[in-house]
Amino acid sequence: MKSSREKLIAFLEEHLSDFLTYWRKHMYIADNDKYIDRVEHNGLSVFQLVKKTLSRHLCLNDIQALAEKIAKERAEANINIGEFVYNTNLGRSLIIRYALKSGLSIEELQPLIDNINGLFDQFLFYAVTKYTELKNAEIQEKNSFISQSHKDRLTLLGQMSSSFVHEFRNPLTAIMGFVQLLKFEHPNLKYLDIIDHELQQLKFRISQFLHISRKEMEEREKEPIFLEQLFQETVSFLYPSFVDGDVDVSTTIDPKARVFAYKDQLKQVFMNILLNSIEAVKEKEKPRHIHIQALSRHEEVLIEISNNGPMIPPETVQAIFEPFFTTKKLGTGIGLYVCKKIIEDHGGQITCTSDERITSFFISLPHEKRNSLPV
Fold first, then answer.
1. What's the domain range around 12?
2. What is a GO molecular function of this protein (predicted)?
């Protein structure tokens, strides 16, 4: 006499064609699925696992092997994992529905249905785990490619920058020298201050390229820097730009705030952020305001440079420190990247926040140690 397990297997095999037809008709599957011709075959393979689990001849390796094979096909076909889970559970519910029509009593069916559910739970676990693993590997590969592309572009930019700087810097230095001579010999000659300022700006832009064209820069020694004095020098240098943009600038700087750093590099960071801020506030009506704040707090110095320009969209805020990212028509996309690199090289951090009222750049730098000052 047949056991309840054998009776259920025979009943399911008898209705297999009806079961597959209904399953195929109601499942989710894209027309462009590259493995569309294997779907029914995979369904039959899962049914064979059901028969094995009912006849107690199934091992975990059989479940894992089939689950990972199908997961690999789903990942290669770039199919949403939700659709796969839905189709699998649709097959589960159909098998249980047919099992309930088999004529077996509830007492006989209950342990068999528990076996079927256990099989599908294990199958989905292995399949989803493998699918996730494959997709994560795919994302990692894409991220590595993007990262390498950035490195390649930076290398190319470095080669171009080095050539550009050598060709351009010598005549620029000569021009700046002759401007200084003219200022000395003709102190009242109009426009010399403007020419000198613009040449200094050009020199500053060139130095930006220098910071990413070499891994090691020939720098002066680090020195104790009082931020109040450094910001005074920076704001004075940019004074023509503030006037030109009709921008009010204010400062709240702790006189005790000082860091141990390369002065030229920090000045470059502050100039870059201030120039960007000036360009931002010029896009709105007056009043246009930029505020600089620096506080000495425990082991670090906190700097905030804020402006009341237009809001930067959240997706842009997340990307502004990436190399070559720019929203300007003629921008290079390296200014804020250089700022981030300089601050991080000094052991600090730089972030940006923006809303409809204010945009702020926050910089934290290690506080200068007392024993670094000359006695």
1. 4-144
2. phosphorelay sensor kinase activity
